[in-house]
């Protein structure tokens, strides 16, 4: 990740988790082409029409924004709704940020 | 029907040059995965692979003669030289219309493609394009150069089915021998696709692991790219015996199928159909198979699907199979991988030892077969199955046995 992305992510992780969640939600809305008001925690990926290719685009959006590579692993594959997706993405971002 | 035997094998991979170096690493669990070296980086995030480093090639004989070809052709020629030498075929025996050259490649001349286009697109004053660019890039170049090197005038071509390319080429070549169309075939696969552009494309699919390939393990998160070539001489058993050749293994069966389903997502029904077809082709019972060198890419979905496919094809006998994926050692060599893994299968029969699946951290309940985890396992192996499953839903399975 670039130094700028690194700082941005570190600041988000240090701030309230709500800020990071909002930031991830913005990526999901943009990459999934879904209006933000439909992205409630219990809305399922299926009901929103989010395919596995959309999830890949969300991961690419995360990479563009934070410079972090997240592979398609089991925790992501298991996510059923937006709340779970945000939780998995934010915890993986935190893990990567610690590792770097 | 005439039977087919294997009388020669050769390979090059990140584990080194030659079958013995390859098998030493595969059996010993010495992974060739390490930092990738590129002449230029774009925005890459994954920086590990099982890459053949340039200094390995520079020390090889005939270097100057083959350096002008794309890397995938060089790999194919290096592997073919070892395989033909081991077969003991005289130059007048291998030459002529009774030999075929059938090679698989998933990608072809990727480095030539990337380097030539980079200059054309980006240099303010592009260097003059090499008039030999097309014959370097074309996928069939490797088969043509092998045919020229040995004077082979029989059927010669390259087949492509992504990661099943090598297994398909081997199966098709063996079928030609069995049909009596030729006496022998130089078969296998080659790919040299750890290049900057295509590596970045692999990354964007999110199937590459950033840290380690862990087939069938819990916490696995993807594959690691590899490269190289494996070449095998399949020969009519009768013809091989008549010339006094040493038979390394018997080629027992080939099965292939298409999922006709999804361009990426694998289908256990299609994969099991290929395994069943290989068993039927070899006329053996599922219980006769001892060891499976799995496709085992280490992606979440492949390993679950392959487990299901093995259960469908083998039924209750699936629990008696020892299964390993050797990809954590040599990487996923794409269109070459089926040949490298068939070589590993033959060597496992020779040494009566199943090679290990490295980096295994513990059982994934959805991959509940007997995985040879982390350590090699000495065991009785009369018959081994090698699986290759490709994007596009193309499946190819090969069976080999003790001679």
What does this structure look like?
- The complex is a heterodimer of chains A (100) and B (403).
- By secondary structure, chain A is an all-alpha fold.
- Chain A is built from five helices and no strands.
- The longest helix of chain A is centred in the last third of the chain and has 18 residues, at 82-99.
- Chain A is globular and about 35 Å long.
- The N and C termini of chain A lie close together (9 Å).
- The mean pLDDT of chain B is 96.
- In chain B, strands 1, 2, 5, 6, 7, 8, 9, 10, 11, 14 and 15 form an eleven-stranded mixed beta sheet that branches. A two-stranded antiparallel sheet of chain B has the order 3-4. Chain B has a two-stranded antiparallel sheet with strand order 12-13.
- The chains are: A mainly alpha (100), B alpha/beta (403).
- Chains A and B meet through helix 3 of A and loops of B.
As a whole number of angstroms, the C-alpha radius of gyration of chain A is 13 Å
SSE order of chain A: HHHHH
- In terms of per-residue confidence, which ranges of chain A show pLDDT below 50 for 5 or more consecutive residues? none
Coarse shape of chain A: globular
Mass-distribution shape of chain B: globular
Spans of chain B of at least 5 consecutive residues whose pLDDT stays below 50 are: none
Q: What is the subunit arrangement here?
A: heterodimer
Distance between the termini of chain B: 17 Å
Question: What is the share of helical residues of chain B?
Answer: 25-40%
Mean of residue pLDDT values of chain A: 87
- Count, helices of chain B: 15
| Count of individual beta strands of chain B | 15
């Amino acid at each position: 990740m670039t130094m700028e992305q690194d700082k941005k992510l570190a600041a988000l992780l240090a701030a309230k988790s709500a800020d990071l969640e909002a930031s991830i939600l913005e990526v999901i809305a943009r990459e999934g082409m879904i209006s933000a008001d439909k992205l409630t925690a219990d809305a399922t990926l299926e009901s929103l029409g989010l395919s596995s290719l959309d999830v890949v685009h969300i991961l690419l959006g995360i990479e563009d924004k934070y410079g972090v590579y997240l592979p398609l692993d089991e925790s992501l594959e298991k996510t059923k709704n937006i709340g779970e997706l945000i939780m998995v993405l934010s915890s993986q971002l935190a893990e990567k940020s610690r590792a770097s | 029907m005439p039977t087919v035997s294997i009388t020669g094998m050769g390979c090059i991979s990140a584990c080194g040059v030659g079958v013995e170096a390859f098998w030493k690493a595969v059996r010993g669990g010495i992974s060739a995965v390490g930092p990738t070296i590129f002449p230029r980086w774009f925005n890459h995030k994954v920086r590990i692979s099982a890459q053949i480093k340039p200094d390995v090639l520079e020390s090889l004989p005939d270097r100057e003669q083959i350096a002008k070809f794309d890397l995938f052709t060089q790999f194919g020629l290096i592997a073919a030289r070892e395989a033909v030498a081991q077969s003991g075929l005289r130059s007048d025996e291998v030459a002529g219309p009774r030999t075929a050259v059938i090679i698989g490649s998933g990608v072809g001349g990727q480095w030539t493609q990337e380097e030539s286009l980079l200059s054309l697109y980006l240099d303010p004053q592009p260097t003059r394009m090499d008039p030999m660019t097309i014959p370097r890039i074309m996928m069939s170049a490797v088969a043509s150069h092998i045919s020229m090197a040995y004077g082979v005038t029989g059927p010669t071509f390259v087949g492509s089915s992504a990661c099943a390319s090598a297994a398909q080429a081997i199966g098709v070549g063996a079928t030609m021998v069995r049909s009596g169309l030729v006496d022998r075939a130089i078969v296998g696969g080659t790919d040299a696709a750890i290049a900057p552009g295509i590596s970045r494309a692999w990354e964007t699919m999110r199937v590459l692991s950033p840290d380690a390939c862990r087939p069938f393990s819990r916490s696995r998160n993807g594959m690691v790219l590899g490269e190289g070539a494996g070449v095998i001489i399949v020969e009519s058993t009768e013809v091989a015996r008549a010339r006094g050749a040493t038979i390394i293994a018997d080629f027992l069966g080939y099965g292939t199928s298409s999922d006709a389903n999804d361009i990426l997502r694998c289908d256990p029904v299609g994969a099991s159909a290929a395994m069943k077809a290989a068993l039927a082709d070899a006329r053996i019972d599922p219980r006769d198979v001892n060891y499976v060198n799995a496709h085992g890419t280490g992606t979440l979905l492949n390993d679950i699907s392959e487990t299901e496919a093995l259960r469908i094809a083998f039924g209750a006998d699936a629990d008696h199979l020892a299964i390993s994926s050797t990809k954590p050692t040599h990487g996923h060599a794409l269109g070459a991988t089926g040949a490298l893994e068939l070589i590993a299968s033959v060597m496992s029969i020779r040494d009566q030892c199943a090679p290990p699946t490295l980096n295994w951290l513990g059982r994934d309940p959805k991959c509940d077969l007997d995985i040879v985890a982390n350590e090699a396992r000495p065991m009785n192996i009369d018959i081994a199955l090698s699986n290759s499953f490709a994007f596009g839903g193309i499946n190819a399975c090969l069976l080999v046995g003790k001679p």
